[in-house]
Amino acid sequence: MxxxxxxxxxxxxxxxxxxxxxxxxxxxxxxxxxxxxxxxxALSARNKLGFIDGKIEKPSADSSLHxxxxxxxxxxxxxxxxxxxxxxxxxxxxxxxxKEIWTELEERFGEVNNAKIYQIQKEISTxxxxxxxxxxxxxxxKILWDELSNLDVIPLCTCQGCKCDARASLLKFQQNQKVIxxxxxxxxxxxxxxxxxxxxxxxxxxxxxxxxLTQEEKERKLKANNQFLTESFSLDVISQRQHPHKGxxxxxx
Length: 253
Description:
Layout: H1 32-45, H2 50-53, H3 66-82, H4 86-89, H5 98-109, H6 113-125, H7 134-151, H8 166-184, H9 191-198, H10 206-242, H11 246-252
Helix pairs in contact: 6-7
Domain Retrotransposon Copia-like N-terminal: 13-60
InterPro entries: Copia-like_N
Protein name: Retrotransposon Copia-like N-terminal domain-containing protein
C-alpha cells in the first residue's frame, strides 16, 4: 500500500492513540446531546467522522486499504468506548464497526427533537436572574439558546434567485427574542436599564445588551464600595468627636 497523505481519512497520526479520551466526562446516560456534540467535534478534528456516519465504507478484503480501514475503525471504536461509562460501554463492545455503535447510542439515548425543544423552551420561559450576577445569568441563558438552535435549525430559502433575505430576517427575529427573554428575567433592580434598552430602535444584539448590563453592574458595585468607605469614615469622625480623649488615654497606657 502506498503511503497515505496526512489529510486522508484512513491516515493515523502518531498521536492518534486508541487510549485517548476525547471528552472531559464519560457519558453516563444523561446529557446525550452535549456528549454527542463534543464527540463530533473531536472526531471531525481527527478527520474520522466518516467512520460513524458511514461515509467511509469498508473496502473489499482484497483492497490494499482494507487492513488500514480496520485499524482506523478499531481506533474510533476505542475512542467511543473510552467516552462511555463502563456499564454503557459493555452494552456495545461487541459491535463490529464504529457506525454500529454510534447508531445504537443515538437510537437508545437520542431524544425526539420536538420533546427536547419543548423542554428547552419551557426552561427559557421560566429563566430568571435571581441571585446570579449578570455573567452567570447570561451563561445560563446562552447554554439554553445554543441547545435550542442546534435542534431547531432555521431552514434555508430554496427560491430560485431568492432576494427576499428571509433567513436574515429570521435570524434578526431570533436575536430580538433572546434580548426580550433575557430582559424579562432580569431582577427589578435593573428596571430602568431594561426600559432604556427596550426604547432603542432597532434593539441591540444580545451581546451588546450583556455588555451594557455588566457595565451597569460594575458601576453599581463601585458606587456601593465608595458609599461604604464614606460611611465608615463618617462613623470614625463621629466617634472621635464623641470621645476626643480616647486616643490620648490609650496612647498613655
